Amino acid sequence: MAVVAAADSYACVPNGAAKGKPYVLAFSKSQFYVPEAAIVSLPKRANVLPDGETLGKVLATKAPEKWMAYCDPERLMKIKGEEGTCVYTTFEVEGAPEEGRFLRFISGTIAQRNFPEWKKKIEDKMSDKEDPLVIRNERQRARYEVLDWSKEKDCPTRAQLHPEMNRWHPVDKDAYVKTCRVEPKPQRRPKGAQTGSSKGITKARANANNSGGALSSWTERLMEADAMADPDDVALWTAPLRVGPKGTYTINELNGLVTVTQYKYDKESGAVTAGEAGASGAAGDADDADDDADI
To answer: What is the pLDDT of residue 190?
Structure first.
């Protein structure tokens, strides 16, 4: 059963520069409020970073070791939805008071690597004979138990919680929270260097050439996205194509290769230019393909 919030029952930031303001979960190209009733565990405090450039670098990497410091259970937040539960963290940035409202997803890969190490650190403190750490209330216990989370056990069917599926309220467009995140500048690859993904592209290009085909730069970019994809992301890639009126193009699929052919057509009537569509005609192929392809 989805947890649906009334407008006055959103989960809010407990402290810091954004204290009292609703958390925001950015998903796809939209922002959503999180119902207070969906919160399993709130963080005690947020991570603190010096500027938007540093934040951008952190969020751009999926390497678990780069996220180790940000997996402190005092800085983790656990949320439940129809799919199960997921874990998030927050970042405060000096001079950007609204940044602490954004919930940043902790991927299954990062959790699998980092949570056990944090749990061991805490267990070592709890077993200290001179000054043992003691869990004194339910809030502390809930934060400690976040470290038991795993994707396989707690959210096996989805990469992360889907706010639309859970019917959480979207943030109005004019109330969108602006992040101070600065995307890191792409690093130029040294001349002659070849990454794992580029090796795959080179091999695919060679196969295409040997078979008489060719790879467009657009196709190569999609292959690169495939090679570098985050295993915890839902979508591998999306490739929208602008086409003419229905009936002026065909969509064919063979052995995993989808080919879209756009035929010449009259701009006013939308009719395919005679002789361009071939014997089968574009209209019939396009109609059949509409049921199978998301183009």
So the answer is: 62
Residue bearing tokens 């080919």: 259
Nearest 10 degrees: CA dihedral of 177, 180, 94, 90? 60
pTM of the model: 0.64
- The residue count for the chain: 295
Residue 80 has a CB neighbour count (10 Å cut-off) of 19
Residue % of the chain over a pLDDT of 90: 58
Nearest to 104 by CA among 94, 84, 90: 90
Q: Which residues pair with 171 in a beta bridge?
A: none
| The one-letter amino acid at 12 | C
Alpha carbon distance 139, 15 (integer Å): 15
Token pair listed for 93: 């940035």
| Tokens coding 117 | 């190490």
Query: Could you count the other beta carbons within 10 Å of the beta carbon of residue 286?
Result: 24
User: Count of CB atoms within 10 A of residue 70's CB?
Assistant: 19
Instruction: Give the Cα separation of 202 and 205 in Å (integer).
Output: 5
